[in-house]
Amino acid sequence: MVSRKFKRIKVRVRTPITKTGNGAFSGGKVNNLLLLGTNGENGNDGKRYLVKGIRGLLNHSMMAIAKQQGVEICHSSDKTETQSGEKLLPEGFHPNGACFPESECIWHSIMGSIKRFSRVKFEPVVIVSTYSKGENGDAQKVHIATETRNSLTHGLKQAMQDFGERYFSGEFTFIIDFNEELKQEELGFLLKAILFMPELGLGGSVNNGSGKIELLEIVLQEVFRTRTIGKNGKIIEEEKERNLWKQMEEAW
Ligand SMILES: [Zn+2]
Description:
Layout: E1 2-22, E2 48-51, H1 54-69, E3 73-74, E4 93-94, H2 106-111, E5 120-122, E6 125-129, E7 140-147, E8 150-152, E9 159-162, E10 165-178, H3 184-196, E11 214-229, E12 235-243, H4 245-251
Parallel strand pairs: 3-4, 6-7
Antiparallel strand pairs: 1-10, 1-11, 2-6, 5-10, 7-10, 8-9, 11-12
The structure holds zinc ion.
Zinc ion binds near residues 73, 94, 99, 105 and 107.
């Protein structure tokens, strides 16, 4: 048997409506949600989608908190200006990873960069329509709607590009697992950034009223995971979770 003990933050959120980005590709938009539908059955039935953008949203939250606290942190870019000499770096930020290792900022110590790996890991959030039947694994059930807008190639009755916009609404949980122990100050900063997330919103069209998220519940846990080989080579994985209310309270 192998085992590992680590900490985890679990956050339950509700969104009245979140726009997910366009079709199968996010079109390079920053902070979009990318939906990966694979088995194209009737409507949204059975299609599993990956909700993207949570890490990006938390990044923006951290930037906002750092600004409020007057703390300098890494910017998302490692460049100080564009090729044409335009200044990229807002006040209060240094180029991504520039602080490491001499004077590592709190953002970098949690999120890392190409210079050092992240201390936290975001578990993928997979959603599926509430109407889907059968085995959904780890997928979380939400309402999913699609507005179909296909671009047809001239002369071919075939959709070349799927512009259909997906929206989803409902409750889902996202999980941040710690690869390494965070200092109390870092944990507090992370918790504050999560608390700030509703001020920013998730996904595309935040300014047009979508992407509102409401935080419902947050918990810090200690997880004890074991994995062993059972009969006939079957892998048995178990997780025991323990809530760390006191430690969470002390951190923020
Ligand atoms: Zn930094």
